[in-house]
């Protein structure tokens, strides 16, 4: 995944081995020693609000969650000098920070809000200020979703289609990620048939939902009546 980069010709050495972190009163503080692990990462749920990666979420219905690739960056040190370590501790207290780093996948430097992972944050503070430096320190950061603020505040619409039946059901509106109760479907009728479910595809091969089901809305949806 990502773009091929000729490391010997295409980019500056600084692009490969330095990240700049803004937070805790420091602006674009340079940390050298970036590994090749900066990349778009695994698929994770798209959440909003005060998201940090150390937060645990419980999903009632995994099908109701949008997923997206989450950017991550890792910097590893055999030894970190005391000044850098103390700065890192101050920034890490904020949980979230702005990170400028080289992305292998995009083939360029990017700036993104990121959060320290919970375990690494705890590890960083175990060394304390009395040391001259820290050994075997690994900084791991992953992207937050606050750059999706416009999406998070948007309104989604659920439209109902009788799918060869009769009757109409008013559309429903909900703020992105909020829960709505679907229609009971009684306004739809079809001679000789009963309503089995609603489906995101007219042929019934999409996601299926029952009348009166509680769902979390992440995008505009058209729900088709499925008859039996």
Feature tags:
12% helix, mainly beta, 4 helices, 2 domains, rod-shaped, 41% strand
Q: What's the pLDDT, averaged over the residues?
A: 76
Rg computed from alpha carbons, rounded to a whole number of angstroms: 24 Å
* Assembly type: single chain
Q: Structural class, from secondary structure content?
A: mainly beta
Describe it:
With 228 residues, this protein is mainly β. The protein folds into two domains: 13-148, no CATH class; 154-227. It has helices at 13-17, 82-92, 118-125, 149-152; strands at 18-23, 26-32, 39-45, 67-81, 96-103, 108-116, 133-143, 155-161, 172-175, 179-181, 195-199, 208-209, 214-216, 221-227. The protein has a seven-stranded antiparallel beta sheet. It is rod-shaped, with a radius of gyration of 24 Å. Residues 1-11 and 48-64 have low confidence and may be disordered.
Any chance you could write out the topology, listing elements then pairs?
Layout: H1 13-17, E1 18-23, E2 26-32, E3 39-45, E4 67-81, H2 82-92, E5 96-103, E6 108-116, H3 118-125, E7 133-143, H4 149-152, E8 155-161, E9 172-175, E10 179-181, E11 195-199, E12 208-209, E13 214-216, E14 221-227
Parallel strand pairs: 8-14
Antiparallel strand pairs: 1-2, 1-5, 3-4, 4-7, 5-6, 6-7, 8-9, 10-13, 11-12, 11-14
Task: Please provide a brief summary of the model.
The chain has 228 residues and is mostly beta strands.
